[in-house]
Specification:
It contains four helices and 32 strands. With 437 residues, the chain is mostly beta strands. The protein has a four-stranded antiparallel β-sheet with strand order 1-32-31-30, with helices on one face. The chain has a four-stranded antiparallel β-sheet with strand order 2-3-4-5, with no helix packed on it. A hairpin with a 5-residue loop joins strand 6 (135-140) and strand 7. InterPro entries: WD40/YVTN_repeat-like_dom_sf (IPR015943), WD40_repeat_dom_sf (IPR036322), WD40_rpt (IPR001680), WD_repeat_multifunction (IPR051179). Residues 1-67 are annotated as: Disordered.
């Protein structure tokens, strides 16, 4: 990431030593109410939205000099519900708590923040300090008890919740590699995996009994960057399977408990001579989709390791960088058989997952950074480097909502309240929250 050089060596701990006296924390009772409140979606934008938008438009976006001397024309339109602007650099990652109205944002200022999403303005919950480089990935465990954050200097920190999520205390940390590229958390159990720039992949357990982080596996089958991995659901807790992808064109299925390689797909042997640097991976049950930096899309049966189909997503593209598949997402609706594929070119390709034919192409004027279907609905959320967030009906391709307000690209987003809201991670250092309905 280009932000690796941002704020190297800067001290981000000053001014936060007594944050309890400086910031408004979420009330414990309020958190408890939100956990069990099924009417959370009743929140509506206030009547003074215009005033809120005006405040967003005039603070923090271009504060490096006299606006009269700006050479760029900036669209100051904004239809967001509120904003969070504590970060001093690009916001690289955002992810939501599974039960509470709360998100974590990690940025190029080497800090992660926890803040609420149900109140206007948001309430500051806490700050994750200790990172020496950009915080680029993380996640919550399925039960919401633990939080993992990771930075570009190889440090992972794990925090445990107390007081219903009001307080987070450090549980442990790891520094096994020189740079962490991603973190993925098991969808049900207290395991997480991460990949490194030299190709290694690691799996750890958050062990409550020993109150420690226990290494389950470390794998060194990739020769270049390990760019992504997914846990594959097993029959029971005795199965722990991870599939990882690499810049070297390999795909590896791991038995995490033994460290054994169940299968390894090689570029020349298994992909018929196509050596694609794999950059994205998503699974749906026991079927896996992987996307390459060269536009190659392959579908794998994870049970057998067999490649079911391979598709070159676009033809007649002059710049090969435009082909890179930056986002993949399966539609989990049983009546809508679609896989969404997002490219640097700005194309959102919707493939029929039964015949693997291109059903629709939704065009955006800049690179797609992330795609995600709302639960098991056919409604697709997508973000772009053009600074906009989109909501489409994937069945028809109809554009249902466009969120504007960022002056730079959206690098990540989190879907909240069953899709009613979306919170973003902006390259200009601001997070916006949009009401999409």
């Amino acid at each position: 990431m280009s932000a690796q050089e941002h704020h190297n060596g800067s001290d981000n701990t000053q001014g936060h030593e007594d944050q309890s006296n400086q910031e408004e924390f979420i009330d414990v009772n309020e958190v408890g109410e939100e956990v069990y409140d099924e009417d959370e979606g009743d929140i509506q934008p206030d009547d003074d939205d215009d005033e809120e938008e005006e405040e967003i438009d005039t603070t923090g976006y271009n504060d490096e000099g006299d606006h009269e001397h700006e050479t760029l024309e900036i669209d100051m339109s904004n239809n967001s519900w509120f904003y969070f602007d504590k970060h001093q650099d690009s916001v690289f990652t955002i992810f939501s708590h599974p039960k509470l109205p709360m998100v974590v944002t990690g940025g190029g200022d080497n800090v992660a923040y926890l803040w609420t999403t149900h109140s206007q303005p948001p309430k500051f919950v806490g700050e994750i300090q200790g990172h020496g480089e950009s915080v680029i990935s993380g996640g919550f465990t399925n039960d919401g008890k633990y939080l993992i954050t990771a930075d570009m200097d190889g440090l992972l920190q794990v925090f445990k919740a107390s007081k219903g999520g009001e307080k987070w205390t450090k549980f442990g940390e790891l520094n096994e590699v020189s740079e962490v590229l991603f973190v993925t958390v098991h969808p049900e159990l207290n395991y997480f995996a991460f990949g490194a720039n030299e190709g290694s992949v690691w799996v750890y357990q958050i062990d409550e009994e020993s109150k420690s982080l226990v290494q389950i596996m470390s794998g060194f089958s990739h020769t270049l960057e390990c760019n992504g991995a997914v846990f594959i659901p097993g029959k029971d807790e005795n199965e722990l399977t991870l599939v990882s992808i690499s810049e070297d064109g390999t795909v590896v299925n791991w038995n995490c408990f033994t460290g054994a390689v169940n299968y390894k797909l090689q570029p020349h042997d298994d992909f018929k001579g196509v050596e694609s640097p794999w950059v994205t991976i998503k699974h749906h049950g026991h079927v896996i989709a992987i996307g390459g930096r060269d536009g190659q899309l392959s579908i794998i049966n994870n049970d057998t390791g067999k490649i079911l189909t391979s598709v070159k997503t676009l033809d007649n593209v002059e710049d090969v960088a435009e082909l890179s598949i930056e986002a993949l997402c399966w539609c989990k609706n049983k009546t809508v058989n679609l896989l969404a594929v997002g490219l640097v070119s700005g194309d959102v390709l919707l493939f029929d997952t039964q015949q693997w034919r291109l059903r629709k192409n939704l065009k955006v004027d800049d690179a797609i950074t992330k795609l995600e279907f709302i639960n098991d609905t056919p409604y697709l959320i997508g973000s772009s480097m053009n600074g906009k967030i989109y909501k489409w009906d994937a069945r028809t391709g109809e554009e249902l909502f466009v969120g504007v307000g960022h002056n730079m690209g959206i690098l990540d987003f989190a879907i909240l309240e069953n899709g009613r809201k979306v919170a973003t991670a902006g390259d200009e250092g601001v997070s916006l929250l949009f009401v999409t309905e």
